[in-house]
Amino acid sequence: MDLRRLPNLSALRAFEAAARLESFSRAAEELFVTHGAISHQIRALEQELGTTLFTRNGKRISITLAGRQYAASIRAALTDIAQATRKLQAGTRSERRLVLTTMPSFASRWLTPRIGRFIDRHPELEVELRCSAQLTDFERDDVDVALRMGKGNWPGLHIEKVLDDVFFPACSPSYNGGRLPQTADEFRHSTLLRSQDEPWAPWFASAGFDIPEPMQGMMYEDSGMLSQAAIVGQGVALVRRSLAVGDIMAGRLVRLSDVDTPCEWDYFFVCPLAALETKRVQAFRTWFLEEVAAFELVKDTRQRPTKPSRAALAAGMAATAGEMATDAQLGLDPAKLPDDGAPTHA
């Protein structure tokens, strides 16, 4: 085979995108070139092949049968090239670089306050944290580990459940001048902050409150922003425990009821099977599971510790607070803490 007679690679990429999207304009957007550049490359390819790949009817295009068959072969070839490139990059990539991805809310209110301890433990690693609500495609994206929230049905990957979650209402201690809602009537007349992922109706039903789902008021897409809105006193939010524990322990939020409702999604540690064998991912997994274990000690927000021992504090009470709460933020005086013994609860 004479590889010198292959068509121009840029023209083939333009053709594949236009065939897949059935649009020169959308192909141009995907490849970050102009509509005219796509049209010119495809016409040059047609002339080189001596075959019409698209029929033109004004601004509308339609792929021919020959074009459709050629596109399938070209797409397979380009996929092989992309996979070979990723394999090569994975083999030569520095073992010092660790790329993580998770949801913005979990990153800001759980992982970021803790990640400094991992960096201190492993200064040899270069850690990159990406935040996205989109599902990571490990075949396409340069990512080692994803901390996902969902059902755990992602075949072909290492999937490890690490946390579950619940919802409960919380607000700033200064909300409504400190007169915090407790009864159904008080909730009904409160400003209820809304979220697409956290409807109020299930919690109202569990609490025995005959209150309809609020249809007015501020709607937040991100759970971290929802918690922050409650912290600054905008209203009452239905928060996730995983994101609110630190703020409750630090006094920025107050839990308003012992009733909680389960979250239908869990947190998972997810990575490709091959990545799990690398030293960098093993190091992060070991540290992350230690942090989760420490968090389990303090996640019950219905029992706020008032006189924790030094041992309990070292086990993660202050260290695992969602905002890296200091002793002062928690209202604790280390000099007055007992040397041993279990923490007492109010």
From TrEMBL:
Keyword Zinc among record annotations: no
Source superkingdom: Bacteria
Cross-referenced Pfam families: HTH_1, LysR_substrate
Domain HTH lysR-type: 7-64
Sample GO molecular function, one term: sequence-specific DNA binding
Keywords (A to Z) from UniProt: DNA-binding, Transcription, Transcription regulation
A GO biological-process term: DNA-templated transcription
Listed InterPro entries: LysR-type_TF_proteobact-type, LysR_HTH_N, LysR_subst-bd, WH-like_DNA-bd_sf, WH_DNA-bd_sf
Family: Belongs to the LysR transcriptional regulatory family.
PANTHER family for the chain: HTH-TYPE TRANSCRIPTIONAL REGULATOR, TRANSCRIPTIONAL REGULATOR-RELATED
Official protein name in the record: Gcv operon activator
Protein's organism: Pandoraea sputorum
